[in-house]
Specification:
- By secondary structure, this protein is an alpha+beta fold.
- It contains 25 helices and 32 strands.
- Helix 3 crosses helix 5, helix 9 crosses helix 14 and helix 15 crosses helix 18.
- The longest helix has 28 residues.
- The two termini are about 60 Å apart.
- The C terminus is likely disordered.
C-alpha cells in the first residue's frame, strides 16, 4: 500500500480516483502545526530555535495519517508546488518521524502544477526528496514575521494605547495607503482651460479637434490658466479661416499580454469582475482542486500561486489549435509566443495560471460551475488564449487644422483597428488611466482641404489629486516595489481591514485614523523597518535562501541584531514624546487649514486652549490643553463639512412641510441621526380616563421620531428634503405580482433593507433606500433566505440513517445532523465541504456538549412549564423568600468544606 498526503480533502478525492486502489490518499487540511502565539516560540539566543504546536483538528489528521502509514511501504508528500507546500510536507515528515511512524517507509515528495490524470501520474513516476532550501526560506519568513509581530506589537500597546498589532509586510502596505491619503489632503488643485472646435469637411462630415498651438507656439497644459486668457484665445480662433495643414498615418502593432500570474489575476479580477483578492484566490483554489464534470472530477486550471508567465509546450500547442479552429489561421502567429518571468528565483517560477485544457471552453463547463467560478474561469481562459494570438494592427491618424492668422493649430487624433488579432478575445483594463484609447474613425481629409469651423467649446478644468488605491492598483504597486509575495497579498489586505486600520469605500482604500497613528508611530521610531527598499531587499534575501545562495540563519542574525536594538531604544521613550511626534506628523490631517484665517487648533469651547492629540485608556483622541478647566474632547476625526456643527449640538435643518415640526441632525453614542420635533414642540398625549377605584395615570411623555443615518450617507450630505424622506420611512415600493402583498423599504438596526411578507433583505452599498425601485427589490428578495425559505442549501448525505445538511445561517454557513449544528471554518467554502468533513465538525461540536445558557435568561423548559408545575413551584419560592438566613448559610457551606480539606 502506498500513502499520498495532499492539503485539501477535495484534492484528495480527485487524486484518489486517478491513482486507483493501490493508493490511499488523505488530506492534511493545510498546515498541521504552527508557532504558538506566545512569547518565546522563536528563540534568537538559541540559534533561532522554534517551538511548534498542533491544535485539536490537526491532531485528528495526524492520527489518521499515522494509522494510514502503518503497514505502508511508501509515503508520497504531494502538497502544493510552492514554498508553503514544501513546508507542509516537511512538517508532516517531522511529526511522523517524532512518532516513529516511518520505520521501513520510503518518503518521497511529488509536485504537479495541475490536477489532471496525466499530470498526477507523471509526477508519481518522478518523485524527489524534500527541497530543504525552500523549507529554510519558509522558516526564515515565518521567524521574521513572528519576531516583528511579537516584538513590535507590545511596544505599540504600551506607547500607543488602543492600537492593534503590527506586521512586517502589512505595516509597509499600510504606509502606502496612508501616504497616498496625505498626498490627496495636501493636493492643491490648479486651474487650466481647453478649447475644442468642430470642423465641417468638404464632404460634409464633422471632425472634432482641440487647440494645440497659439501664436505659433505649442500650448502647455497650463498656458491657458484663466478664463481671461481662454476667452482671448477663443476670440482669436473665431476670427481665423481654416484648412488641413497635414495628415499623418502610421500603422502600429499591439502585442498581447502574457498569461496570468497570481498578481495579474488578482488585478484583473478586481477591475473586471469586482472580486476582492481573497475572493479571487478562493475561487481559483476551487477551480484548481477540481470540479465534477459529467461524473469525473477534473482540475480546470493550473496552480494559482505563481510568479511565472511561461506555459508548457503542450499547452501552447493546444492554444494554437483552438485559435485556428475558433478564429481562423490568420489569428495564429507564425511562431509560438514565449514569455519570460521576472521572478529572480527559478525555484518559484512555476508555470503561469492557465486552463488545464484550452479545448475545454467556458461554455462547455458553464453548467458545472456557479456564476463566480464561471466568470473567473472565462477570464483565465480568454487571457491564456489571447496570449498566443496574433498581434492587433491599428492605423493611428493625426490631422492638423491650421488657421490663417495668430499661428493657430487644432489637432484631431484617432486610431482605427485594421486587424483585431488578440483583441477579438481579450483587452486588459487599466487603473486610473487618463489615456483614453480613442479608437474612433476620423473623416477622410487631405492636405489643403478647406475646413469650415462650426461650434467651439471653451471649458474650465482643475487638476485632480492622485486617486486612492483600489485592490488592483495596490497589488500592482506592491509588486512593483517588491513588497511581499503575490501569494500573500490577499491575506495582507484582509488583515489591514480586520484590524480596522483601513476600510474599503467604493472599492478604494481609505486609512482609518487608527491606521494613520500606527504608521506615524512606526515612521517616527522604526523608520527603517517600514522603508520600501528595506522590505524589498529582505524579500530578495528570502529568494536567495530558497535558491541556496545564502544561509537562512545569517539573514536572521543580521536582522535581529539591528531590530532588537531599535526596540531597546524605545524602552525609555515617554508617551509624551510619542504624542509630540505624532501631533507634529498628523497635525495637517486632524487640524486642516481652511483658509479662513482661524487657527484650526483653537479650542471651540474655551477659545483659549490649544487642541492636540491625547492618549487615553481606550486609545487616542483630541483634547484641549486647558484641561481640567476645559473638558472639550472629540474623537480622532478631521471634522468634515457639517460634522463640527453636529458635534457641539443639534443642527437645525428646517421644518417638516407636513407637520410643521422642526427637523434636526444630531449625533448620539451610536452615530448620527435625524429627528422630527423635540420635547418643547411635541404635546404630551392625554392619559386615558382611569377605571373606577384606580388612580389616574400621568400624561404620556412624547418621544420624537428618530432615524439613524445609514452607512454611506454622510452628515454633510443631509438636507431637509433627505431628512424628511428618512423620517417618512418605511416607504411602500409596490405590490408583489405573485403574492399581492406589499414590498417596503426602510432602515433598521442592521441598516437599510427591503421587506416582503416578513422576509427581510439588506440593501447593498450601491443601493439607496430612498430610491430603490420594484425591479431591484424583487431581485434582492429572490436572494433572501426568509420565512418559509430557510431550508438546507443541500443535503451532503446520510449518517446512521439521518441526513447531514448544509445551511446558510445568520453567522455564516453551517452543517447539521440530528439537531447538532457546527459552523464551517472560514477557510472552507460551501461548495468544497464534504460529508466526511461535515461529520468531523459535527462530532467535535457534539463532544463539547450543549451551549451554556446566556446569563439572565430563563431556560426554555421552565419558560414553557405547565400551569400545574407552576402551582407546585409557588410554595417553594415563598419558602425561599421567608428564609434568607438559610440561603446565606448554604452559600457559605462550600467555603467551610474547602477549608476543612486544606
Amino acid at each position: 500500500m502506498k500513502v499520498v498526503v495532499v492539503e485539501s480533502p477535495a484534492k484528495a478525492k480527485t487524486i484518489n480516483k486517478y491513482l486507483g486502489s493501490d493508493f490511499h490518499v488523505l488530506a492534511s487540511y493545510g498546515h498541521i502545526r504552527d508557532l504558538p502565539p506566545k512569547d518565546g516560540s522563536v528563540r534568537p539566543d538559541e540559534g533561532f530555535a522554534m517551538d511548534w504546536e498542533t491544535d485539536a483538528k490537526s491532531e485528528r489528521q495526524i492520527k489518521e495519517i499515522v494509522a494510514a502509514v502503518k503497514g505502508a511501504d511508501k509515503l508520497f508528500l504531494a502538497t502544493d508546488p510552492d514554498r508553503e507546500g514544501e513546508a507542509i510536507s516537511w512538517h508532516v515528515r517531522q511529526v511522523l518521524e517524532a512518532k516513529k511512524a516511518l520505520k521501513g517507509v520510503e518518503v518521497k515528495r511529488v509536485v504537479f502544477n495541475e490536477i489532471t490524470k496525466s499530470a498526477v501520474t507523471e509526477a508519481m513516476r518522478n518523485p524527489r526528496d524534500i527541497h530543504q532550501e525552500l523549507v529554510d526560506a519558509y522558516l526564515a519568513r515565518r521567524a521574521l514575521d513572528y519576531l516583528v509581530g511579537f516584538t513590535l506589537s507590545p511596544v505599540l500597546w504600551r506607547k500607543l494605547p488602543g492600537s492593534r498589532s503590527a506586521g512586517r509586510v502589512q505595516s509597509v502596505a499600510l504606509r502606502l495607503i496612508c501616504e497616498r491619503e496625505s498626498e490627496i489632503e495636501s493636493f492643491k488643485p490648479r486651474e487650466y482651460w481647453t478649447i475644442a472646435a468642430d470642423f465641417l469637411t468638404p464632404k460634409g462630415a464633422l471632425l472634432s479637434a482641440g487647440l494645440t498651438h497659439l501664436g505659433g507656439k505649442k500650448l502647455d497644459k497650463f498656458d491657458l490658466s484663466s478664463e481671461a486668457l481662454a476667452r482671448d484665445a477663443e476670440k482669436k480662433a473665431a476670427s481665423a479661416r481654416y484648412s488641413v495643414a497635414s495628415v499623418e498615418r502610421k500603422r502600429t502593432k499591439r502585442n498581447p499580454y502574457p498569461p496570468f500570474t497570481t498578481s495579474t489575476l488578482q488585478q484583473e479580477a478586481s477591475r473586471k469582475l469586482y472580486f476582492a483578492a481573497a475572493r479571487t484566490m478562493q475561487l481559483a483554489q476551487r477551480l484548481y482542486e477540481g470540479v465534477d464534470i459529467g461524473g469525473e472530477t477534473v482540475g480546470l486550471i493550473t496552480y494559482m500561486r505563481t510568479d511565472g508567465v511561461q506555459m508548457a509546450a503542450e499547452a501552447i500547442a493546444g492554444a494554437r489549435a483552438v485559435i485556428a479552429e475558433d478564429f481562423g489561421k490568420s489569428y495564429v502567429p507564425d511562431a509560438p509566443r514565449l514569455y519570460k518571468t521576472k521572478a529572480k528565483n527559478a525555484q518559484e517560477a512555476h508555470e503561469a495560471i492557465r486552463p488545464t485544457d484550452l479545448a475545454r471552453r467556458p461554455e462547455d463547463v458553464a453548467r458545472y460551475l456557479d456564476r463566480d467560478q464561471m466568470r473567473l474561469y472565462e477570464l483565465i481562459w480568454k487571457r491564456t488564449l489571447a496570449s498566443q494570438m496574433a498581434a492587433a494592427e491599428l492605423d493611428q491618424v493625426g490631422v492638423d487644422i491650421a488657421g490663417d492668422q495668430h499661428g493657430i493649430v487644432f489637432r484631431a487624433t484617432g486610431s482605427v483597428v485594421v486587424f483585431d488579432g488578440f483583441m477579438k478575445v481579450y483587452r486588459e483594463d487599466k487603473d486610473d488611466s487618463d489615456d483614453e484609447d480613442a479608437e474612433k474613425l476620423l473623416p477622410d481629409v487631405t492636405e489643403k482641404d478647406a475646413m469650415e469651423r462650426k461650434a467651439m467649446r471653451t471649458e474650465q478644468h482643475f487638476t485632480q489629486p492622485p486617486p486612492r488605491f483600489s485592490e488592483a492598483s495596490l497589488v500592482k504597486r506592491m509588486e512593483e516595489l517588491g513588497i511581499g509575495r503575490p501569494s500573500t497579498y490577499a491575506s495582507i489586505l484582509s488583515v489591514l481591514q480586520d484590524r480596522n486600520y483601513v476600510r474599503l469605500d467604493q472599492r478604494r482604500f481609505i486609512p482609518e485614523d487608527r491606521g494613520r497613528l500606527v504608521t506615524a508611530f512606526l515612521e517616527s521610531f522604526f523608520g527603517r523597518y517600514v522603508e520600501y527598499n528595506f522590505t524589498a531587499d529582505l524579500e530578495n534575501q528570502l529568494d536567495d535562501i530558497s535558491g541556496g545562495r545564502i544561509d537562512w540563519k545569517k539573514v536572521l542574525e543580521v536582522f535581529w541584531k539591528d531590530f532588537s536594538g531599535a526596540v531597546d531604544e524605545t524602552k525609555d521613550l515617554r508617551v509624551a514624546q510619542v504624542l509630540d511626534a505624532l501631533d507634529e506628523l498628523l497635525g495637517p490631517h486632524f487640524f486642516p487649514d481652511t483658509g479662513s484665517g482661524h487657527d484650526p487648533r483653537t479650542c471651540p469651547t474655551c477659545n483659549a486652549g490649544r487642541l492636540s492629540l491625547k492618549l487615553g485608556k481606550f486609545g487616542a483622541f483630541i483634547g484641549c490643553s486647558a484641561y481640567p478647566e476645559c473638558r472639550f474632547t472629540r474623537p480622532l476625526t478631521t471634522g468634515g463639512e457639517g460634522e463640527d456643527e453636529v458635534r457641539e449640538g443639534p443642527k437645525e435643518l428646517g421644518n417638516d412641510p407636513e407637520s410643521g415640526l422642526p427637523v434636526s441632525l444630531r449625533k448620539g453614542p451610536y452615530g448620527h441621526y435625524v429627528q422630527l420635533g423635540d420635547e418643547t414642540t411635541l404635546k404630551a398625549e392625554p392619559a386615558p380616563a382611569p377605571e373606577k377605584g384606580k388612580k389616574a395615570k400621568a400624561a404620556k411623555a412624547p418621544k420624537p421620531k428618530r432615524v439613524s443615518l445609514y452607512k454611506g450617507l454622510e452628515p454633510a450630505d443631509v438636507t431637509l428634503e433627505i431628512a424628511c424622506r428618512l423620517l417618512a420611512l418605511p416607504r411602500l415600493i409596490g405590490t408583489h405580482p405573485e403574492t399581492g402583498k406589499s414590498i417596503s423599504a426602510g432602515v433598521g438596526r442592521f441598516g437599510p433593507y427591503v421587506v416582503h411578507d416578513g422576509v427581510y433583505k439588506s440593501l447593498t452599498k450601491d443601493d439607496d433606500v430612498l430610491i430603490v425601485g420594484m425591479n431591484r427589490a424583487m431581485e434582492l428578495l429572490s436572494q433572501a433566505k426568509g420565512r418559509g425559505a430557510a431550508g438546507p442549501l443541500k443535503t451532503l448525505g446520510e449518517h446512521e440513517g439521518k441526513p447531514v445538511t448544509l445551511h446558510e445561517g445568520r453567522y455564516g454557513p453551517y452543517v447539521s445532523r440530528d439537531g447538532v449544528h457546527a459552523t464551517l471554518p472560514k477557510d472552507v467554502t460551501t461548495d468544497a465541504v464534504t460529508l466526511e468533513a461535515a461529520l468531523d465538525l459535527i462530532k467535535a461540536k457534539a463532544a463539547k456538549g450543549p451551549a451554556k445558557p446566556v446569563r439572565g435568561r430563563k431556560a426554555a423548559p421552565a419558560a414553557k412549564a405547565a400551569p400545574a408545575a407552576k402551582a407546585e413551584a409557588a410554595p417553594k419560592k415563598a419558602a425561599a423568600k421567608k428564609a434568607p438566613a438559610k440561603k446565606t448559610a448554604a452559600k457559605k457551606a462550600p467555603a467551610k468544606k474547602a477549608a476543612a480539606k486544606t
